[in-house]
Amino acid sequence: MRRARKIKVDHNSEFELDLAPLLAVMVKLVPVLLISSAFVQMMVIETQLPQVVSQAIERQDQQPNPKTLSLEIDQKDGIHIVVTEKGKEKVETVPMKNGGFDFDTLHAKLVTVKKTHPEIFKIEISPSGSVPYKEIVRIMDEARQARDNSVKFPVFDTKQGKDVETNYMFPEIIFANTMEG
Amino acid sequence: MSRRRRAEFDTKKKSTFALNITSMTDMFTILLVFLLQSYSTAEVQLTPESEIRLPTSASFTNPTMAIKLSLSGTALKMDETKIADIKNNTFLPKDLEDSDTNFIKPLFQELDKLAKASPEEKHIKEGRILLQADRELPYSTLRKVMYTASMAGFPQLKLVTLVGE
Question: Does residue A26 fall inside a structural domain?
Fold first, then answer.
């Protein structure tokens, strides 16, 4: 009888992992990723909305006398929030604070307006000629979405046949005075 | 003398050695993770203009294919081509229509030319414009661009902003 040869396994032996193929893959990947990387992230402001909100905007357009919300922005007087309902205008003013616009008060007032009129999604802004572009962008940010994620507004979803919640306030922004002379 | 001879002997000796690439692999792994983080999947790659300081916004909408306009404190450009000059944050009177000071003649001509050259392209058909404008410019200057673009059949204006609070 031949005795089976005993294989000796040395559990304490060390071996070096060959990293060369891994490095070769990485060397090829790095230039590819370098080309397609965006080091400065740029986005756009536009109205891309969830389906439910888009439908609500359409419903608002179909109404014969829709409620409208507009902002008149001036560097001296501040921001006037005008809500027009059945031909009647209700104006609220956000005065200037320390030489600049009071964005916190503006946001709080817009949240209140949205809570009172959840069916309004469109906002018309009319800045005066001297208002800097960065201030207009900031005002758009304040109007688009509620800062506090816990604040939700009801929107009627026609597909589900019930109210759903969104934190969008006035996502459709229109420059109302662009075509004025 | 004896020391020099010994040194010569060492260099002449033929030997192979394994390069330790572990640290280099470490470095590449970190680089790869960083590049993967900044990998952009946007449809359109926008190049920031050196003269323009864009405003920051909380918007997270990726740019789509559109005509690219850039408005700095010195010039209005379409892609890389200068269309009109700007001085003291306003357009020069020679570029504006006499009867309508909101109308920028060279911009209208360029947009009209594009609209006629390729009317079937989706972004031209829908009238989309990507506007990169300096954050310090007054609304009166921007309004002229908006007005002219709207008159040329480009009402969908998308304002390019930087990500930030």
Answer: no
Does the beta carbon of A161 lie under 8 angstroms from any beta carbon of chain B?
no
CA-based nearest residue in chain B for residue A48: B61
Any idea where the domains of chain B sit in the sequence?
2-37, 56-163
Strands of the sheet with A88-94, listed across from one edge: A88-94, A78-85, A68-74, A122-127, A172-175
Which residues does B101 contact at the CB level (< 8 Å), separation at least 6?
B144
Q: According to the model, what pLDDT value does residue A79 have?
A: 92
As a whole number of angstroms, the distance between CA A43 and CA A45 comes to 7
* Per-residue confidence (pLDDT) for residue B30, from 0 to 100: 93
Q: CB distance B136–A30 less than 8 Å?
A: no
Q: What is the average pLDDT across A28-43?
A: 80
Exposure b/e, A107-133, CB count within 10 A at least 16 = b: bebbbebbeeebbbbbbbbbbeeebbb
pLDDT in tens, A78-103: 999 999 888 788 898 999 888 889 99
Q: Is A8 among the domain residues?
A: no
Residue A27 in domain:
no
Instruction: Kindly tell me if the per-residue pLDDT of B129 is higher than 80.
Output: yes
What's residue B50's pLDDT?
81
Return d(Cα A76, Cα B51) in angstroms, integer.
Answer: 29
**What is the rounded average pLDDT for all residues in chain B?**
82
Residue with tokens 């999604």: A121
Q: Give the strand pairing for A68-74 and A122-127.
A: parallel
Q: What fold characterizes domain B56-163? A: Nucleotidyltransferase; domain 5 (3.30.420)
CATH of the domain at A171: 3.30.420.270
How many independent structural domains does chain A possess? 1
How far is it, in rounded angstroms, from Cα A23 to Cα A34?
16
d(CA A154, CA A176): 27
In a domain, A43, yes or no: no
Inter-chain CB proximity B139 and A131 less than 8 Å: yes
To test the contact with chain B by mutation, choose from A34, A43, A179 the residue with the greatest count of B C-beta atoms within 10 A, namely A43
Per-residue confidence (pLDDT) for residue B165, from 0 to 100: 56
Domain that holds residue A80: 51-175
